[in-house]
Amino acid sequence: MSRRNNRPTTTLDEAINQIASDNSSGAAEILRRAGAVFTLLNRRSAEEAPADLANAQRLVTDICVALTLAQPDMSPLLRLASAALSAARIPTIASHALQAAQDSALNFIENAERAARDAALHAAALIGDGATVLTHSRSSTVLAALLEAKRLGRAFSVVATESRPMLEGRTLAEAIAREDISVALIADAAASLAMERVDLVRVGADKMTPVNLVNKIGTRMIALAAEERGLPAYAICDTSKFIGDDCFSRPIRESGTASEVWPDAPKGVAVVNRYFEPTPLALFTAVVTEDGALPVEEATRRAAQASPDQTLVEAIAAFRDEIK
């Protein structure tokens, strides 16, 4: 959170800290919890009444900065915060500014969820009978696409990576198995070897810039292995995750805790635990969005047009300068 004197209540801090410490949920889950933060801010401020419009707008700015920094690799959170902050600048009454921020945030979430559902439907259509699909990490949109393909009567199988260190691939595999879809769980390092029996690769995304797709560590290795064997690799990524100006080009959160990789590592061993990595868009066959499977060139063009709120970008830069 911001260190300004007008920072919101401890309850809000706790809600944002929980988002920041979540190392396994996807963007959809994180967005819903971010929306709840704006609802909480609006309700608490209605009870405590901000002194004036400027104070209310500063509260919204602080919340937007804190949420964005909580999960800097998830561009939908930046897009949501941008929308909320832009909306809060329009009203001339403090309470209306807070309500506008909440309404804008919830509307963004509703649109993003609809877009993710549509992207999953388009992705399901790309799974043919008898296909073997390899996926990495746990994307709720990829999971929805697999379940929709099953509902359509397609017979296919899945190869899922464990996705270390949080092992969210196991959760994905369990969900798939419950629906009577044949699934094999493999170690991340076995993904290249598994390409021998795979027909296509599909992964989710937390962020897409005009150059890279940002997803769980290991995605680049998998995309390179698919390219080597000439296999189609699809990124399932609705446009709420597109961002043209990546204001986090300088790393904020380099790694997770070492204990997630090796509890009680011996002295002298430096454990590096990276969650996300960029993968060049050129390695993908297409980017499947709510508008269907877009050629990489078209996805790049659309990402370049998705600009964050400049006031938010400046506030983030100012905060980062403060904590250097």
Count of discrete alpha- or pi-helical segments spanning 4 or more residues: 11
Q: SSE order, as H and E? A: HHHHHEHEHEHEEEHEEEEHH
Biggest sheet overview: 7 strands, mixed
The counted number of beta strands is 10
Average pLDDT works out at 91
Query: N- to C-terminal separation?
Result: 15 Å
Low-confidence spans: 1-8
Summarize the structure.
With 324 residues, the chain is of the alpha/beta class. It folds into 2 domains: 10-117 and 308-322, translation initiation factor eif-2b, domain 1 (Four Helix Bundle (Hemerythrin (Met), subunit A), Up-down Bundle); 121-304, Rossmann fold, CATH 3.40.50. Helix content is 48%, strand content 13%.
Give structural notes.
The chain is an alpha/beta fold. It folds into two domains: 123 residues, translation initiation factor eif-2b, domain 1 (Four Helix Bundle (Hemerythrin (Met), subunit A)); 184 residues, Translation initiation factor eif-2b, domain 2 (Rossmann fold). The chain is 48% helix and 13% strand. It is built from eleven helices and ten strands. The strands form two sheets. Strands 3-2-1-4-7-9-10 form a seven-stranded mixed beta sheet, sandwiched between helices. A three-stranded antiparallel beta sheet has the order 5-6-8, covered by helices on one side. A hairpin with a 3-residue loop joins strand 5 and strand 6. The longest helix is centred in the middle third of the chain and has 31 residues. The N terminus is likely disordered.
